[in-house]
Every structure is written in C-alpha cells, then in structure tokens.
C-alpha cells in the first residue's frame, strides 16, 4: 500500500468525493451537494491547504484523509486540522487509518506546524488510544458534542 497525494491522481477524485460525501455530508444533513464535494477535492494541493491523501493498493483506493487549515468554524484559532479520515469498511483492521494519519503528521511537520488538530463526534477513544490529547468539547449548529483533540508534531 502507498499513500499518495490525491492531486496526483485526478482519476480518483470522484471516488474520494463519494466516500467523503456519504460518510461526512449525508450523515450530517449538510446542504452541500455531491458536486460541491467533487469541486472541493478537485482543488487540492501538495504543499498548501487543502491537501488530501489517498491510500492505494493495486490501483484501488482504500481510504483517504485531508489536512485543512480549519475544520471547525467556531475554533479557527486551531491550525491545521486532520480531517475526513475514512477507510472503506472492507479494508478495516489493516492499519490504513494509522498509515494515513502518519502521512498527515509528516506533511504537517514539513509545512512547519508543531501541532495538528482534529474533531470527532464518535471516535474519541480511537484518538486517545493513539496519543492524541483531548482539548475540549464544543457544540455547533449540527452537533451537540464535538470533541477536539491535538497532537504535538515532533
């Protein structure tokens, strides 16, 4: 398995958009359309925000993760954010999520950041068990409970 920049694989943009749309847009009741998500992922970069990675094996996309400047409007003082981590269910248990996170951390360090943040509504234990530090719990107009975590990038 290799982790590569989505921007180097434009043929995977719709597949990544579908994963993110179904997991993070539809489930939240967001008004964003699938076309909005495709447009978002069509404008990713390798050294400036929005950066998206994909896990590839034998040409198949197994999962994705992004680095955003901000992933929680009510907390724009925290930067940057690991966002939209997703592994296809049939590939769970293979360490793909951890590999995608590791790549995200490496690139955050390359970009000069000392901390990386994330938000989760349902996976706090997953991140706690992997060394992320709980920062706070907040609410927004969609979720009553959003846990914010950070990781020191060293």
UniProtKB/TrEMBL annotation:
Residue ranges of the TM segments: none
UniProt xrefs under Pfam families: Acetyltransf_1
Superkingdom of the organism of origin: Bacteria
Ranges where the N-acetyltransferase domain occurs: 3-152
Name of the protein this chain belongs to: N-acetyltransferase YhbS
Biological source species: Metabacillus malikii
